[in-house]
Amino acid sequence: MATLKVPEVVPSPTEDCERLRKAFQGLGTDEKAIIWILGHRNASQRKKIRDTYQQLYNEFLIDRLHSELSGDFRNAVILWTYEPPERDAKLARNALKARSKGTKQLEVLVEIACASSPHHLMSVRHAYFLLFDCSLEEDIVSSVSQPLRKFLLGLVGSYRYDNEAVDLEVASSEAETLHEAIKTKKLDHDHVVWILCMRNFFQLRSTFAYYRETYGNPIEEDIMKCGNSVLRSLLKVVIWCINSPEKHFAKVVRDSIAGLGTDEDSLTRAIVTRAEIDMLKVRTEYAYMYKSKLDDAVIGDTSGDYKKFLMTLLGARM
Amino acid sequence: MATLKVPEVVPSPTEDCERLRKAFQGLGTDEKAIIWILGHRNASQRKKIRDTYQQLYNEFLIDRLHSELSGDFRNAVILWTYEPPERDAKLARNALKARSKGTKQLEVLVEIACASSPHHLMSVRHAYFLLFDCSLEEDIVSSVSQPLRKFLLGLVGSYRYDNEAVDLEVASSEAETLHEAIKTKKLDHDHVVWILCMRNFFQLRSTFAYYRETYGNPIEEDIMKCGNSVLRSLLKVVIWCINSPEKHFAKVVRDSIAGLGTDEDSLTRAIVTRAEIDMLKVRTEYAYMYKSKLDDAVIGDTSGDYKKFLMTLLGARM
């Protein structure tokens, strides 16, 4: 379901590094070559390129990219070149250090906790303290106030069972618990936190399906009618990231281009983090939700090398 | 600081397996050989022996030990032969499934969360869901009631920064927060949970030291004077496991042999889990706290192969 296109015959990491080195040298930078190489390599190939580049030239590839490129193009290429756990740790840190701490800033934490594997979340937490000398939890406690804090702590602290194990009795009783919390407008009840933060994703999808069958509406619609407005928005992101991440990321892309100006950081994040995972599904969902093409949206709101790079990750032949 | 004695020249895993196989064969079992081999190998050597045994004889070493041995001796040898994360996941599960859920049963969870490395805790959580098809957190929620539940969830959910990073201002302000919670008998306040569950161990030791200097008593002594009796006992274990695990394990050994009868499960757990870590310090601390020798206590309260095995782990020449 990825949009990333890797050539059938991939050059060796050494060949890729030599071409990158050539692209950096001389007057100006050959951005086209950089897009062509990095934009067509998957995470493990990019890792080999990073390692080989450092061995060959005794400098970090990311440092070199930083000095050669600029603007949104630079941000996107660098984010793409990081090891995914390191990338997400940096995104999480930026979100927690942003001045405003609304749902929009913090949804990246939910994406890491709910739209990635439990193992990836652990790797991000490990990368976080290697990079920032403190734990992700410590930064959440010091940066986010209640009631978001307890949900975010629960979400990033969980290590969910990572296999399909669904108990239909649990689904019905926990759908009832969630319904009761929504009805009494107690979205921040401990039981809501435990259910959403601890149950495995398959169990939760079953619980949400049971909720819809029994109470008539998707649970996120009922949540949006009650309680603290910031919390309910966050919970909607939680439910979408668990139930159908493609909906969430289609919305991230849409919100980033809607209205005047573009939120390049969010647009970059959505495409860079999902190009290797489910961007084909995001594209389909986008078309369904907004009756227009995601690719046209990106083409219309971006330009230059930044546009070329995002479109490459979206699978376009540039 | 381990008491485990590994010979200078260690036989190959194949040689060890052949000797173990011989010990199992024929009439009766050669327990002495089993103690001699497994009781003198460290965790990575035992892992190689397990793997090699399976390859050579197409059966699990632990299954064979189970069928050959019996009683407390069997429990101790098997616990020692498991991969440490698997061993601790099983200990945690047994604690959560025990009928009574007092501090005594649950302290094994605190040991895993506070007297081991953050990385080990993650491995235990991973082993837990591989073994039991659910997460450790789910079992805590379903087995333990408040106020212990929120502390245990916080403790096992944390992924502490694993390096020495101490901020003296944080130490003083958090010592003050803890003192306020103790003074107002609100041990289950969220701030107490966050401080004890999230801060790195070096930071917490500095906070506890500041507390003692400023308020005159070790923090665990002040805690024992206030609040819910089960919670304060658990918090004392938390503080000892963070500050001086040797005190905690000396007490586990002492409690296991004190009074009529012996609590073999606790005695086994203390020796098996610490023989490779800090049993020398536990022994010294035991002598200081109880004015008697830990080894004499074990010799006096155990017998047969069980005694021989524990004493081997304690470094005795049997």
Helix content of chain A: over 70%
Q: Into how many domains do the coordinates of chain A divide?
A: 4
Distance between the termini of chain A: 20 Å
Write the element-wise H/E pattern of chain A from the N-terminal end onward: HHHHHHHHHHHHHHHHHHHH
**Fraction of residues in β-strands of chain A:** under 5%
Q: Output the CATH topology of the largest domain in chain A.
A: Annexin V, domain 1
- Quaternary structure annotation: homodimer
Which class best fits the helix and strand makeup of chain A?
Answer: mainly alpha
Chain pair sharing the greatest interface: A-B, 27 and 27 residues
- Look at the structure and name the CATH superfamily of the largest domain in chain A: Annexin
Structure report:
2 copies of one chain form a homodimer. The first copy, chain A, is mainly alpha-helical. Chain A has 4 domains: 13-69, Annexin (Annexin V, domain 1, Orthogonal Bundle), CATH 1.10.220.10; 85-157, Orthogonal Bundle (Annexin V, domain 1); 168-243, Annexin (Annexin V, domain 1), CATH 1.10.220.10; 246-313, Annexin (Annexin V, domain 1, Orthogonal Bundle). Helix content of chain A is 71%, strand content 0%. Chain A has 20 helices and no strands. In chain A, helix 4 (61-68) runs antiparallel to helix 5 (71-81). The mean pLDDT of chain A is 94.
